[in-house]
Amino acid sequence: MTPLLSVEGVSKEFLVRGKRIVALDSITLALEQGEFVTVVGPSGCGKSTLLNLIVGLLSPSAGRILLRGRPINGINPEIGYVTQKDNLLPWRTLVQNVEIALEIRGVDPRERRRRAGVLIQQVGLGGFEGHYPHELSGGMRQRANIIRTLIYEPQLILMDEPFGPLDAQTRIVLQDQLLGLWNAARKTIIFITHDLVEAIALADRVVMMTSRPGKVKSVTGVPIPRPRDVYQIHESPAFRSTHETLWRELRPEVSLAESWRGGIRP
Ligand SMILES: Nc1ncnc2c1ncn2[C@@H]1O[C@H](COP(=O)(O)OP(=O)(O)OP(=O)(O)O)[C@@H](O)[C@H]1O
Ligand SMILES: [Mg+2]
Description:
The structure is a single chain. The radius of gyration is 19 Å and the shape is globular. The protein has helices at 47-55, 94-98, 100-104, 109-122, 138-150, 168-185, 196-202, 237-264; strands at 5-16, 19-31, 36-40, 62-67, 70-71, 79-82, 156-160, 188-192, 205-209, 216-221. β7, α6 and β8 (188-192) form a beta-alpha-beta unit. The protein has a domain at 5-78 and 154-264: P-loop containing nucleotide triphosphate hydrolases (Rossmann fold). By secondary structure, it is an alpha/beta fold. The chain is 37% helix and 24% strand. The N and C termini lie far apart (57 Å). Magnesium ion binds next to α1.
């Protein structure tokens, strides 16, 4: 069967003030419909670049990207993109922000309000519909940021460290809610994170990248049954062994950053 997404030998180079930067080197990756894949790798290894290529904001220097066997050509409404920084419009209320994609598509106002309402309830934001972004906490804004993408039901959802700036407790709550939403809709998700625990807790498979130029170092299946309890997952033996395997692989990739830290220590 044709995979939903297939990234075939994709490389990306940037020319910055006459200097060639190879951000990604021969990335090959295929995702089946309904899979939840997380991507981990050191800062600067090209994770965001990979998402920008998949969504069609950038084009590859080599290789190709296919959605259901067809080349991606510019921005595709079947692909949703949740960026690290929330892009909520400050002059619109929570519910107006959540329903914006449906408004653009000309969906009937009552229908779009209904669909926004369902999602707002699902992520525990009921009662805050009329609040403006600056009146919401970071975690609430990030929830709104995610559901404003889910509302138009893209088949493939790209998430670039959506929980990055949040505290540990809020992250776990949001991971739990995201798994609930994913379980209900079974869309295909590529989720970037720096956090190995988060990468394992959410994923069917974890893609590990090398430091720049980013290559796929390994792809590891997560043998933890679903539904998962993200609050207790670290206690499971399967979690521990997966974490150990992945940390052994990630360690040499981040050691550069470590030696830099060591260098400035008194
Ligand atoms: N538009 C661009 N123009 C020039 N260079 C770029 C551009 N976008 C990314 N790069 C370079 O490509 C490399 C990969 O960047 P990218 O943002 O994809 O890394 P990342 O893995 O997402 O890092 P982080 O974990 O810090 O977000 C970096 O060296 C970066 O400077
Ligand atoms: Mg990034």
